[in-house]
Each structure stands twice: as C-alpha cells, then as structure tokens.
Amino acid sequence: MQRRLAGYDRALYRSVARLPTPRLDEPLRRVSDFADYSKPWLLIAAALALLGGPRGRRAAVTGLAAVGTASFVVNQPMKRAGETRRPDREALGVPKPRWVRMPTSGSFPSGHSASAAAFAVAVGEVLPPLRVPLRAAAAVVSFSRVYTGVHYPSDVLVGVAVGALSGSIAARVARLMTAGED
C-alpha cells in the first residue's frame, strides 16, 4: 500500500513538473523563496498588530502562535522521525528555471505549507473577512513547493493538515482566553 501511494505521489509530482507554464516559473520561485522563515506571515501579523486595533492584535498573536506551533511540530518530531529524502527534481523532470535552493532538511512534511495553513486558518477565524485571501495565499505558497521541485505533493498535503489543525487549535484557545472581552 505504501509503495503504491509513493508511486501516485511521484506521478502527481511529475505531472506538475510537466505543466507547460513557463510564465509561472519566476513568480512561483519568488513566492517560494519569500515564504522562507514565514516572512509573509510575520509581515501580515505586523500590519494587523499596528493597524487592526484590538482584534487585529489578537489575530496577529493567534496567527503567530499557530505558526510557531506548526513549525515546531513539523520541524522537530515529524521531520526527525521520517528523514525522508527530497525529490530528485532533475531525474523527475522539473525544469531548471523553476528551481529554488534545495533545503537540507528532510522532505516530509512541508514546513512552508504548515506555516502558511496555520496562519491562514488562525487569522481567518479571528478576522473572517481575511479568511479567503489568506487561504488563497497559503494555497499558492503550498503549490509553489511542489512546482519548484522541493516537495512531493504528500509532503505539502500533510504540512497543510498539520498547519490547519494548529491554526484551528490556536483560534480556539484565543477564543477561550478572550471570552467576554468583545
């Protein structure tokens, strides 16, 4: 069963590699690089904290707590437990113009995807008008990791699941801590 799933994962990876979309190479490379160290989420959190009043500050803190939790879970126990190899993007046909620097950590799961989903879910729960744009941004970051060849689709899907769970938990905790304040 595991071998079959790995085969599907590689087949989907190859399908993304074969997409005839050279106009997306530069933008998705930039997105993937920009998302290093959760930069987009830190910048949005700063803007929310400075400009969003009490709810914006709550959303910023909740989002960053979710990112911290997801990053810890993904980068400590999960990546250390599996130590899966990164894709061989040359052998699997990812065009070189798409390439970003290949991380040295294990491939499974995607930390970029976990952080993106964690922030989007957590902040979207506190500030519902931001739910769709943040989730769209998280989806672009997550897809960019497969598109640039540094993750298999399953790495991204599990990263998103861990991030969404972290975001949901952070939002619940924030609601409990601030019950009666609004």
Question: In words, what does this structure look like?
Answer:
This protein has a single domain, classed as Orthogonal Bundle (Vanadium-containing Chloroperoxidase, domain 2). The longest helix is centred in the middle third of the chain and has 30 residues. The chain is globular, with a radius of gyration of 17 Å. Helix content is 71%, strand content 0%. The chain has 7 helices and no strands. It is mainly alpha-helical and 182 residues long.
Summarize this structure briefly.
This protein has 182 residues and is an all-alpha fold. 71% of the residues lie in helices and 0% in strands.
Which labels suit this protein?
182 residues; globular; 7 helices; mainly alpha; Vanadium-containing Chloroperoxidase, domain 2
Radius of gyration: 17 Å
What share of residues is helical? over 70%
Tally of extended strands? 0
Note the gap between the termini. Answer: 50 Å
Average pLDDT taken over every residue: 94
What's the shape? globular
What topology emerges from the helices and strands here?
Blueprint: H1 2-17, H2 22-34, H3 39-51, H4 53-82, H5 111-126, H6 131-147, H7 153-177
Helix pairs in contact: 2-6, 3-4, 4-5, 4-7, 5-6, 5-7, 6-7
